[in-house]
Specification:
CATH superfamily: Nucleic acid-binding proteins
Order of helices and strands: HEEEHEEEEH
Strand content: 35-45%
Radius of gyration: 21 Å
Helix content: 25-40%
CATH class: Mainly Beta
Distance between the termini: 87 Å
Number of domains: 1
Number of helices: 3
Length: about 140
Amino acid sequence: MLKRLVLPLIALVLLATLYFWAALNWSYSTGDRAGWVQKLSNKGWVCKTWEGELAMVSLPGSTPEKFLFTVRDDAVAARITHAIGKRVSLHYEEKVGLPGSCFGETRHYVIGVTVSDEIPLAPGVMVPMPHEATAAASAASR
């Protein structure tokens, strides 16, 4: 009688563990999104994750599209926090099949961030940031 109850229960726990391990370690897709981070907050009752919002603008003057994302790594969240207000490129993985909000509120998990020192005005037209212009001027005067 005990074997009939315990063995199926152990098998069910092992299958659930295997499912969650596979869902967390396998990515449906990966990619990059560029824009300005508008919001990043540490949310959750039991499972704390960083939830953020990236404003993506395709053309100056157009309405920005919002990209909602989740960050599970505190070091990546710290780098994003340091870059708020600057143009960034977020590298993310899309995870499918994770139930509930304990793993994050979105399907897009940011795993890396790159701060852009140039602001694109149009394809092929870049405006350097002020610290680059002063560094270039001081190098030219030498």
